[in-house]
Design brief:
Distance between the termini: 55 Å
Shape: globular
Mean pLDDT: 88
Structural class: alpha/beta
Helix content: 25-40%
Largest sheet: 9 strands, mixed
CATH superfamily of the largest domain: Metallo-dependent phosphatases
CATH topology of the largest domain: Purple Acid Phosphatase, chain A, domain 2
Low-confidence stretches: 51-55
Strand content: 15-25%
CATH class of the largest domain: Alpha Beta
Number of strands: 15
Order of helices and strands: HHEEHEHEHHEEEHEEEEEEEE
Amino acid sequence: MAAKKCSDEDFSLSFKLDGATATAKKYGMTERNVYKRRANLARHEPIAAPTRQVTDFPGRVPLSIKNGTVLIGGDAHIWPGPASTAMRAFKKFCADIQPAAVILNGDILDFPRLSRHPQSWESAPDASEEIEAAQDHLSDIVQACSRKTRKIWTIGNHDMRFEGMIANSIPQYRGIKGVHLSDHFPAWEKAMSCMINEDVRGGETMVKHIPKGGGINATRGFTLNGGVSTIHNHLHSQNCRPLSDYNRFDRYGVDTGMLADKEHRAFGYAQDAPLDWRSGFCLLTYREGLLMPPELVTKLDANTVWFRGAQHRV
């Protein structure tokens, strides 16, 4: 069987989560070639093999919305300290809109001290400090929402650092309270992805942290490849791309942007480069199960966001 094309990012993620055998089968490669490619990529960044204890998150959770709204935001990269502009706006919109569901789409935590990358001299928070800060912010979101609001957390690569570090270092601790992310955030359903309205033609929407593929066309490519509307935010860019074909309904690709401020110290590794990132999140609206054109909420300055043709102070 001819090997399937896959990006370095897709290959690395598959190896980390599924291991060599599953990656070889997925992409039509021999295990020997999988390990060769891993060795080549590891020159730039180590690619750890998974253990069975890396996560206990299900692959996908279903969500059905006939008439209602869904707020989706991610890449908060929470550190102790004041809330970012987009995070304050996200809490406000939860209270004002009372969505049917709220989805935190990955990298809510940062965990720089659990990274495989070398640390700089600049101090970074301990994991315990990050978790406490995130508990405060996520508690605010829960309090702002209705008790009926579905609360879902689709896991990002930074979030997985917590359980991954423990699982790879001390796998015998599996099941002990405190070693799993869910132990610290019990109010949130956690999964790798969320499919909204899977059985409604024109309403199917896949929400996951990392899109398939990268680059400036990632949003369109992910939607084209997936065959449904897609929501991601791993690239921090914030944009919405409609996709039309001979089917009756348009599909939409959305990069929700980032809940963090791009000037935050967590992104010091960017070395003050001109980043094509935007702070914000998105609002999805469904009517009779169909997805209406997605709406973006975008940070303008430290106290203002833009939504529906107007400035909103937060």
